[in-house]
Give the backbone structure.
Amino acid sequence: MYFKKLVEYSKRLRRTHSRNAKVELIKDFMGRLTKEEAKVGIHYISGRIVQGKINLAWRGLSALLTTAKTKGSPPELVEVNASLQRASENRGKAKVEVLKPLFVRLSQAERKHLVSLIIGEVQQGAGEGLVKIAIADLFGLSDAAIERAYLQKPDIGELFELLLDRGKAAVEKITMKIFSPVKPMLAQIAESIDDVPAAGDVFALEYKLDGIRIQVHRKDDEVRVFSRHLRDITTQFPELVRVARQLPVSRLILDGEAIGIDQKGRPVPFQVLSRRTTRRKEIAEAQNQVPVLPQFFDVLYVDGVDMTEKSYAERIRVLKDVVRDRRYRTARVKPSTRKRAVDFYEQSLARGNEGVMVKLLKSQYRPGKRGKFWFKIKGAHTIDCVILGAEWGHGRRRGLLSNLHLGVFDETGKKYLMVGKTFKGLTDKMLGWFTTTLPRYKVHEDKWTVYVKPVVVVEVAFNEVQKSPKYESGIALRFARVKRIRSDKTAKEINNIIDLIQLSRIALDEV
Ligand code: AMP
């Protein structure tokens, strides 16, 4: 199948509003794929690429969108996938070079679609959920069977391949198995405890530790440790193996975080700990330098019982039974009042943790899912940004300049790079001040935005830095809010992009 055919289908999906009609369209699309194309096609129609991410920065993507088109045969789906695969195996500029010969053969609409796929922003009103229904329909699987299989193998492409190769029965048989790691359950970010849609004894609060996610599998004396990305990291962490072997149950799967500790038993920063994951030699010496402690918070399997369908409350009860030594369990409370919750959050930050996790006690374990069951609330950081533009507000803020474009210096301190927008934290007084002051520095404007010279400095609080192909900087602030206007600072005194990256786990060469 040509890539352009996929773009057509995606367009039709966007225009189709009924859910059933969308499922029919997806089935029709799948019916046209050859076996070789199936795995690629199934990802693409769910709005994703097979590689997940290929870390292409905004600069690279925009270069690809604007290269000249040459004559050539239109690429097939598998060719697109092969190029993306090569790009994912290269670094920096080489990624763009590898993709160029592919992009020159695509029309503008096809290029745009491919970029949306790469950055995971395909807008067609159909994602994995509908594709899953279409697959179940196509192979005559019940909703429950596909849901259960998907929980253990949360990869539509892999499930589809399994169905093609081994049929319906193989998928119906999937359950939790020791030494077959599942993707860990993930958390949604929440700005503050007030944002979590629950109260009282509905949720548990845990320290959000700054370590490495571990999934520990044990069958008798054999122990395997898997990372968040399901890499086998057993050899690097003999002390985790030791702890797992001492537990009173011989067949189990535990989920937790491994933290590094210093001589006094205090947690070390993630950057120090992460060296242990890449280390392959002299493990004993590394163990001495940064000893590691497991902090288990969940149990997925115990003595032949799949725990993932049980509630978190039940899993916590079993965990306490299996991991009796408190030193190996994550600190947790079930706060009866909001004040208790806030105190625990502050205590966690004071101990040098990243924040807290809030987990609904009635929730099941959903491998690979980032649902409304687990929430992470991180401590806020603050930086000084310069304002590069401001958008006119809506509703109550009509006629006022409100959504501020925030910038920081690049590495050289010569250029300003945008890292986010926000209208949060602005008081009426600030809004009035921006509306009268910013137009004085106007460089140009359009219907929505006034772009200004970098003069006004604001102090901004935010919870997280994330990679973002949307901005040239390659990163964006999450939950940015204005704390105050820094009239005492000039645009030369603001923070730079390196400061921001250091506050995150993103490596400098990734953006
Ligand atoms: P993030 O990497 O910011 O998306 O946060 C999710 C990660 O926090 C998980 O993958 C774990 O590695 C880590 N984490 C730390 N403490 C906990 C905890 N108590 N429960 C779950 N995850 C935790």
